[in-house]
């Protein structure tokens, strides 16, 4: 079964030795201010130690504030943010990072990602991330929504391999060739939209497995993620849902159940195609 993940605090060691929790909170669409601050506060109280935001989300200030207010030492919370497409390029990425860092109110960021592979820009953007990493502003650098050929473009110019590739990943889009490629090159796969915006939760296979374990369909899908050794960051601003999502460390799916969920793959996206997007 590979790595046994039995606690919300369990971490994967990234390719540069930095430890990243397998499980965290995503804050996409959480409103800046009270809404995002509450979500982050609740998550931290429940044992979450990883928060994923982005410049695009417009809520970095609230994320930073909630982490400071929690009283948890900064080094115990793993914080990810991302450079948005319109800021890509070398100098503009360095500026965008500094703006994100100031909004967060931190001396450093744990993981900085290129949000999408903007054609003609992402290699230059990667060079900026390398500089931020070498200068100690970020503990790890990575990418989001990169396909194999985008990663190969980075390999061609850089001796720093991305630590993480955060992609759309759920039972309808298992991305097995990409996952295998990342594993072979020491890149940790991370899932956004792991619940496919709820679309997969009514599937009879998932419902049946959930009933067998006395769990919700969402918990089964999130457990499938971590047992596939994919870092997972479900988003929610509701206290009870944040708690429910994290309650996946007291059961394990069998190999047969894992295979049945894998078999639901249709290579179907709900987000944009990384080879064909216009934002």
UniProtKB/TrEMBL annotation:
It comes from Alicyclobacillus cellulosilyticus. Substrate binds at residue 115. Keywords: NADP, Oxidoreductase. The active site is at residue 57. This is Glyoxal reductase. Belongs to the aldo/keto reductase family. InterPro entries: AKR, AKR5G, Aldo/ket_reductase_CS, NAD(P)_OxRdtase_dom_sf, NADP_OxRdtase_dom. The record marks 82 as: Lowers pKa of active site Tyr. Coiled coil: none annotated. Residues 29-266 form the NADP-dependent oxidoreductase domain. GO terms for molecular function: oxidoreductase activity, acting on the CH-OH group of donors, NAD or NADP as acceptor. It comes from the Bacteria.
